[in-house]
Amino acid sequence: MDRRTVLKGLAGAGGLALTGFAAPAIAQGASARTLRFVPQANLANFDPIWGTQYVVRNAAAMVWDTLYGIDDKFVPQRQMVESEEVSSDGLTWTFKLRSGLKFHDGEPVLAKDVVASLTRWSARDPMGLMLKAIQNELTAVDDKTFKWVLKQPYPKMLFALGKGNAPCAFIMPERIAQTDPFKQMSEYIGSGPFKFAKGEWVPGAKAVFEKFADYVPREEKPVWLAGGKKVLVDRVEWVIMPDPATAAAALQNGEVDWWENPITDLVPVLKGNKNIGVDIGDPLGNVGSFRMNHLHAPFNNVKARQAILMALSQEDYMRALVGDENALWKPLPGFFTPDTPLYTEAGGDILKGKRDFAAAKKLLEEAGYKGEPITCVVAQDQPITKAFGDVTADLLKKLGMTVDFVATDWGTVGARRAQKTPPSQGGWHMFHTWHAGADCINPAAYTALRANGDKAWFGWPTSEKVETEITNWFNAKSLDEEKTVAARINKAAIDDVVFAPTGFFLGYTAWRKNVSGVTKGPIPLFWGVSKTA
Amino acid sequence: MLAYALRRVLSTLPVMAIVALFVFSLLYIAPGDPAVVIAGDQASPADVERIRANLGLDQPFLVQFGSWVWRLLHFDLGTSIFTNLPVAAMIAQRIEPTLSLMMVTLFLTILIAVPLGVIAAWKAGTWIDRVIMAFAVFGFSVPVFVVGYILAYVFALKFDLLPVQGYTPLSQGFWPWLQNLILPAVALGCVYIALIARITRAAMLEVLQQDYIRTARAKGLGQGGILFIHALKNAAVPIVTVVGIGIALLIGGAVVTESVFAIPGLGRLTIDAILRRDYPVIQGIVLLFSFVYVLVNLLIDITYTLVDPRIRY
Question: Which residues of A touch B310 (CB under 8 A)?
Fold first, then answer.
């Protein structure tokens, strides 16, 4: 074979390929029955118990149903359950499942599936762990009934089963739920209103959810995770877009229908487009956090932590994040989500009014701070933490502190913050994060507020007062009692500076106006959403 | 020739082994922890530890490396820590968009860059040459993502001619496939066009000074024939070399281009895997890219024999 033969061969192959390319395009019909959605992040895994990222929880809420669902008043309403009964001593809970529940593989949902699912969930969820610790037995009585017998009353039982915080108590077939909770399952079969199209899943690019024809919605009006989850489209396609500018352009061009969380900088462009609707997405917003390491000097001294509270301007943090959009932030002289029943400002005066740098510097001096470098670990790949980090570097310098600013990515922050070693040996003094407001409505899922030392969240704060009051909240039997306890928690957590809240902030969501039914909620709610061509 | 190709393919094995060891070591010492990402922000340190243990990430370096190599020897790239899917399957899902993008970019590039370089050499020193070289400087200087945004704004948002983002498989038709690739290919190809146009010009200038070109002119051959049949063929070796080197540029550029145009290719898979510290995926992709690079070099060497019959192995 000579080179001319090879070249002729290549040309022939090219011609052949072109002939093949002329295949007719597949019809693009039924676009009105397909909702194309840009989520906040990539759906990289799909086990909502093993991986507790918000994006996994949001997708899981489409596929797996829960026994209860919270409504917009934070009251758990029946979802898969038809009725429940609690014994007079509060120790035995008996639940009955409603009729017509079916998994996506056609099998009926049975009490044994629920028992296995709750067993797996309770190994990972903070409230589940509490239940497990006081559990006598969790058993299936018959196909539709299961019983949870406890050693002591647990007034927050229904909230635990219906809360939207990850991990939610999702119900799966028994064979899947028997997977080790610390290992990832590989079958994604639920009984929720959507089926997961595993064959079409391209992690990092696309996830597809199809309407589950056999789903029987409740009769009640849908409110957040409660009520009738009526699906009005055939398919929901999650299109992962790492670049916000591309997502904005795609929404304007009609290539996607709904963008979960447009960045603030691009919102004016979207608002200027007559085909696009923009509104606050999650009314529970987020709580910004300046997290200090309670194990090492100077922040092992409460006076140093109080100095930060005294000097910290929440407005600076919020402006760095949302700019001039006043509707997107609120000061937060406390820890609980604003406009929710337990919100309180008790003890929060230190975060209000003019910032007192002189007093803060004095407190730092009393804490024994002598100019040692403060290691701030700041994730630059997250716009929120980057903005917070820049404000903090400025704040610490104004306080006369030496700043060792470690600019890195979120993956590294995640690993480094788990180090308890001194900052000079790979540990840290402070990092920033934020908590979904839905996690901060009460102490139930508020891991960041715990102050039980070694067992607490990163920073490992210790405060007996906070811990005692959190226990009191779990035992509270009325909302008034809960409110009283929450005020005491708030004051104790500010006094001991469990962490420094940097403010409360909200985000927008945006959709094309041929889509209707987009509602505000702690997660994107796909039931009730419809689309015209 | 066949023996030569076989020898070259075999010689890639030690190269791949060194790449494998290097990549594994680099990831082992790099900061970050996939267990933290998996567990989520609310997880306790104990939960993170348990997930890490289940993933085998608490094992010593040699144990982890040994089991990875053992799997590799069985042609198993492992399983993604996050998706629980085989790495080979994830690469297979993503390879078509990246290959398509690279092919269209290469096609566009050669179609545009080579004639530009030839014309610049032919008109060396004139305003045409200067305009072409100014374009080349522009292509080198402007980052891919800036070109991408400008193209998307003009051709998608302003005139609604092409889609902003996404990828349509070739199996759904040639035009749907191509229309998703035009803007990214142009954006990605800018640097490449600039590079090849400059090399073509330089190589052509040298060839156009040769005696046989003067002879061709003297015997009355047309300008087109001289440029594209006699001169270009003899200038082809350096051009083909740069095309090969440019494959590395394309792989690097694809990472950015795929993010800007939301193309679900290997570039985005690489970025996602690095950000999440999905070690098996990173290792699999780097190995693949290394192999492709070695293979492309082999193909370039073989191509030399096609464009210059004097070269024999």
Answer: none
* Residue B80 in contact with partner chain A when CB distance is under 8 A: yes
| Chain B residues closer than 8 Å to A165 by CB | 42
Phi, psi of A515 (to 5 degrees): -105, 135
3-state SS, A74-92, equals CCEEECCEEEEEECCCCCE
Q: Round to whole Å and give the CA distance between B126 and A85.
A: 92
Q: Assess B47–A contact: CB distance below 8 Å, yes or no.
A: yes
**A124-180 confidence digits (pLDDT tens):** 998 999 999 999 999 999 999 999 999 999 999 999 999 999 899 999 999 999 999
Q: Do B37 and A204 touch (CB under 8 A)?
A: no
What global pTM score does this model have?
0.86
B89 contacts on A by Cβ (under 8 Å): none
Question: Residues A69, A162: contact at Cβ < 8 Å?
Answer: yes
List the single residue in B40, B46, B93 with the smallest CB-CB distance to A51.
B40
Chain A contacts of B40, Cβ < 8 Å?
Answer: 51-54, 56, 166
Report chain A's terminal Cα–Cα distance, integer Å. Answer: 57
ipTM score of the complex?
0.82
- DSSP letter string, A419-466: --S-GGGT--SEEEEEEEGGGGSSGGG-GGG--BGGGSSTT--B-HHH
Alpha carbon distance A229, A65 (integer Å)? 10
Shortest CA gap B124–chain A (Å): 31
**Helix residue spans in chain B (DSSP H):** 2-29, 34-39, 45-55, 61-73, 87-122, 127-141, 144-151, 174-179, 182-208, 211-218, 223-224, 232-234, 236-260, 266-276, 279-307
For chain B, positions 116-145, list CB contacts with chain A under 8 A.
Answer: none
DSSP letter string, A179-222: S-TTS--------SSEEE-GGG-BTTTEEEEEE-TT----SSPP
Whole-number Å distance between alpha carbons of B156 and B262: 14
pLDDT in tens, A473-507: 999 989 999 999 999 999 999 999 999 999 999 99
Q: How far apart are CA B118 and CA B202, in angstroms?
A: 9
Could you check whether the bond before residue A167 is cis, i.e. omega within 30 degrees of 0?
Answer: yes
Query: Which amino acid would we find at residue A52?
Result: T
Q: Are B262 and A246 within 8 A, CB to CB?
A: yes
Q: Nearest to residue B21, comparing CAs of B89, B55, B56, B72?
A: B72
